[in-house]
Amino acid sequence: MDTTILRNRFRKQFGTSGDLYFSPGRINLIGEHTDYNGGFVFPGAVDKGITVEIYRNGTRQVKLLAVDVEKDPYLEFSLDDTQKPDIHWACYIFGVCKELEKRGVKVGGFNAAFSGDVPKGAGMSSSAALESAFAFALNTMFADGRVDKFELAKIGQATEHNYCGVKCGIMDQFASVFGREGCLIRLDCRSLEYEYFPFDPDGYKLVLIDTCVKHSLGTEYNERRASCEKAVALMNEQFGRVDTLRDANHQMLDAVKNDLTDDDYRRAKYVLDEKDRVLAVCDALEKGDYELVGQKMYETHWGLSHDYTVSCPEADFLVETAQECGVTGSRIMGGGFGGCTINLVRETLYDKFISKATREYSRKFGVIPKVYDVTIGDGSRKLQ
Ligand code: GLA
Fold it and tell me: Buried b vs exposed e over 27-61: b needs ≥16 C-beta within 10 Å?
């Protein structure tokens, strides 16, 4: 990302310059809504993210400039404030400060400006990029990097839970902090064990198509999580030792079916199906069987659309178009309700697919969808 505008705005606002830190957004190949169910996910960091310029100001005051925000881009809060700020973007930074303090870090006042190139509301987790960028910077500045990377990811997640109203899992913050160039990461969200998988499928590309339907996660996301927790509670009562859907199987779920609403049942069923799909994709990747990977991506999409009900007509249309074009795999990515589809497409088909998808989508919805080629990049870091 070119940091010239950020640096100029920082200098204009604060009269000096600071250090630069960067954290990326993420993609996820497969394993959607499995993270808060103790399952596996398969994300990677992207080369787009949030850059923060920052320096200590020696007070208890935090002075923030959101370079990309038009309305109310400047805000201050005190580290002694107990109420979160009224402005949504500032809650992420307030939350990160508070969560670091809870873990014993003596955060001091600072001046910061930030700017990003990860599209907001596109399902690429710009919010995790923001949290991770600040968590990483403040940990470096005020704790000499003492807080480990797992804890930094958990700080971002706790910020979402406690200050932003989203009961998310750990995937986005984990991918943002732990990302590695050219690699996807298989993460077991129960044990937090992870493994890097070099991902450079010969003859294929990963491409995102943005429906431009902006989503922000909140009530509907939390409702999905609550459905899973209801199913878990019933199975735990009946069978014992069911802490998350990771501990359950289809027979157990069917045994409590009559005590669940149809929505809750289908959501829990989707998660159990997805759990199996992620493992099948791991095997397929090891064998280089990208056609099978793609088939599982389609299955995930229809599960997300019909059972988990987090898709939208625009994403369904893009996935159908991909299928018609013979694209290897396609599905809605991230929390859902809009954002991007992720597509695994043979290089020889790429141009034909992109032009058909953009043309037909524009004709149907009156909006030209954005296309982002995926480059898998490194995680949180200080820039030189
Ligand atoms: C959002 C959340 C993640 C995860 C995905 C769905 O991105 O932040 O924790 O649950 O949705 O897989």
Answer: bbbbbbbbbbbbbbbbbbbbbbbbbbbbeebeeee
